[in-house]
Amino acid sequence: MWSLSVAEGDGPDLARGKAATASGSENDTNGPGNAVDGDPTTRWASKYEDDQYIQVDLGAAVDFDRVTIVWEQAYALDYRVQVSTDGESFTDVKSVSNETPLGSRATQVETFPEQTARHLRIQAGTRATSWGVSMWTLSVQRQAEPDVDLALHASVQASSADSDSTGPEQAVDGNPRTRWASKAEDGQWIQVDFAQPATFDQVAIVWEQAYARDFVIQVSDDGQRWTDVKSVSNKITELKINVNGVPVFARGGNWGWDELLRRVLPDRLADTVEMHRDMNFTMIRNWLGSSNREELYQACDEQGILVWNDFWQAGQFLPNPPGYVDIAADTIRRYRHHPSIVVWCGANEGDPPPIVDAGLKQAVATEHPEILYIPNSASGIVSGRGPYHWVDPATYVDNKIYEADSFGFHTEIGMPVVSVVESMRNLVGDEPEWPPSVVWNHHDWSTVGNQRVDTYQEAIDARLGESGSLDEFATRAQFVNYESHRAMFEAWNANLWQDATGLLLWMSHPAWHSTVWQTYDYDLDVNGAYFGTRKGCEPLHVQADPGTWRVRAVNHTTTALTGATVTARRYDLRGRSLGTPQSQRVDVAASATSAAFTVPAPDGAGLHLVLLELRDSRGRLLSENTYWRYGAAEEMRALNDLGRTRLSTETGGVRTSGGRATVTTTVRNEGDTVAALVRLSVRDSRGDRVLPARYDENYFWLLPGESRLVEIAWPARLDVRGRVQVSARAYNSAG
């Protein structure tokens, strides 16, 4: 046991620091004094025998009416509390049974119209965890006779068992410490044969942690033909955030360290939080409480970005670190004046130890009572755990790729992100830049970690061929970066409020030069991931669902959109129209979506463009979205054979107001083919990039003869020399 406390009511611990003796200890380190020393990290452990005891000399006769024991995993199945006036003759005060396991368990009772049958089956559907389904006890009863368990010691069989020690008979043996556990597959079942027809109207299941997300109670007279009696759903209601009564779809990213060396240049935090706002994010998760910078919270307050704040536990937990909860309470008091904070989370991808969890819950309830506390960042009313590597972007809309088999409030999803060539050259420094080498490995390029960069590189190569230089690879990577990040958020958009309530990238902010899990890079330059994310997170948005190509309008605002129009046009790579444009009027309620038509693929078109527009009732453009649609990945290689095109830019003078410098440029495609994924970059007279810069559009496509007006802004404090220049480069730019 970790601790033994004796008290009267809510009074002090009378056993603290007193003399303790025991029947024995497993070693000199784990003696009985550890249970009363006030240190939650020390414990008494007996010899490996039954009938062990620990006793405390309280120093004098005192009044008490309670004993509190914090058990380690090796707890007593039963014990007696005894008292004595002389330490020799003891009187029993209370007998305690721990026959019921102290671990994870939950009892579920389901009633239904009275049935008379010989056989009963629990037919599970999907699993709630990555394990199979597991139950400590299955009881079948008639409510009029609640003490009679018809399933007790009955004949039982199941679809499977994960071991010889967890067979189905363990669920009906009357021992609450044994359990049936199936193989790690959906669709498992357990059935009971009562030997003769029996009448019942209630089933009670004591689930282990691996419970069934849904199941059907069935009955049969012959054990062959089954009749459904009741369908049961154990689906959890996902976290849904409302601010002032308005539902907020949480879209954002995980924020780790502000900076690798823990020092942040002036204004950098404000700049990077503003970049999150520019991506249309509504939330930042302060992962593991990694940042304690007041400037981060202040910037989130100013930018209207909600903060999910973790405490600091992850991995292996100490049962009750001294002072931990007190420090957590101090932290809550320090930051609670920030209106941006909406969640306090106990631990990353795990549950805090019970004492810590209870302490954190109470600390939040006391110090920040209007704010939600949840114990686990990836379980319960939220989910997580990736994927963290590249997957086919068309699969993000399939909830089966997620551990929880649902969209929900998903706290971590991401993939490798190779940024623009200039930033990558800063990453490699004086080392050879191509092919990827050890210096890349030093910056997270790993085939054995969760990022699995080999699948990312294979996806780029499959689409556009193997690259012969860093410049070529970084340019090609932006197609995959953009397409994949847009697809993540569009998958959640498509299921908005059905079971999709939030999505947070792993990660959004880099603390150092990296090749993975970022939207902008350490230089604060933007790339395809940034603008794919920004597109998928638009407050008013038009998108097409992969696979079906059903177009839908998305409204993340608080105002209904009425009389809007959705239009789809298809073009080949020379900018020629493929078929007749499609158009439909749509009304979209506030914080909702509205489906429109499907966009069929032209016969034999190969790689082509699908251009979507959403306009309001006055014809004003609200959203546009360009898809490069292909079947097999190699169809994208048509871009390698596409004729070269020339882009012209016409840039006005710099305007300065309110601490920001702004310039407007017009980009025009002067060629006779499409300009693929045009990247804009603002530079000063020396050719240096102006960073950070905010573009109201970037990484876009232009048809032949089409032009785009783009506004670019940056902090006026930057040292920008001479006249700024805006460069425009398409994948198929000439020269």
From TrEMBL:
InterPro entries: Beta-gal/glucu_dom_sf, EBDG/EBM, FA58C, Galactose-bd-like_sf, GH, Ig-like_fold, Ig_GlcNase. Residues 1-143, 144-236 form the F5/8 type C domain. One of its GO terms (biological process) is carbohydrate metabolic process. SUPFAM superfamilies: (Trans)glycosidases, beta-Galactosidase/glucuronidase domain, Galactose-binding domain-like. The keyword Hydrolase applies. Transmembrane segments: none annotated. Gene3D superfamilies: Galactose-binding domain-like, Glycosidases, Immunoglobulins. It comes from the Bacteria. Residues 1-43, 156-176 are annotated as: Disordered. It holds the Pfam family Ig_GlcNase. Keywords: Glycosidase, Hydrolase. Residues 22-32 have a biased composition (Polar residues). The keyword Hydrolase applies. GO terms for molecular function: hydrolase activity, hydrolyzing O-glycosyl compounds. This is F5/8 type C domain-containing protein.
